[in-house]
């Protein structure tokens, strides 16, 4: 659960201000979009893809997921996010996810080591 909260916080630091500045999203819409994306990225990227692949593959998948997610939400709400803005935000999210995955894997390995010692 701490991983999901950490992901939500980190994605929120990136996604909310970006959407609030570069689209017609209100702060509430930007926060809800960031929250929904964080949940989707956690379920798909962290619990499924990262479990079976390496960090780089999971981060690339997060970039693709972020782009598709932003495209869909932008279309639904009528935001004028350009393709370049969606690619830029997706790449920034992917970069952040790469480091987040490193922390998650380190925490999981440390916790597994602690359990095996007891």
UniProtKB/TrEMBL annotation:
Keywords: Membrane, Transmembrane, Transmembrane helix
Chain ranges passing through the membrane: 30-50, 56-81
Matching InterPro entries: DUF2512
Pfam families: DUF2512 (PF10710)
Name of this protein: DUF2512 family protein
Biological source species: Paenibacillus gyeongsangnamensis
Upper lineage: Bacteria, Bacillati, Bacillota, Bacilli, Bacillales
């Amino acid at each position: 659960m701490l991983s999901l909260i950490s992901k939500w916080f980190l994605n929120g630091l990136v996604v909310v201000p970006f959407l609030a500045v570069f689209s017609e999203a209100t702060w509430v819409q930007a926060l809800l979009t960031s929250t929904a994306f964080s949940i989707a990225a956690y379920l798909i990227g962290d619990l499924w893809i990262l479990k079976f692949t390496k960090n780089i593959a999971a981060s690339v998948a997060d970039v693709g997921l972020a782009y598709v997610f932003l495209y869909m939400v932008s279309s639904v709400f009528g935001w004028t996010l350009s393709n370049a803005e969606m690619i830029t935000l997706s790449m920034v999210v992917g970069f952040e996810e790469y480091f987040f995955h490193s922390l998650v894997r380190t925490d999981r390995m440390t916790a597994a080591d602690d359990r095996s010692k007891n």
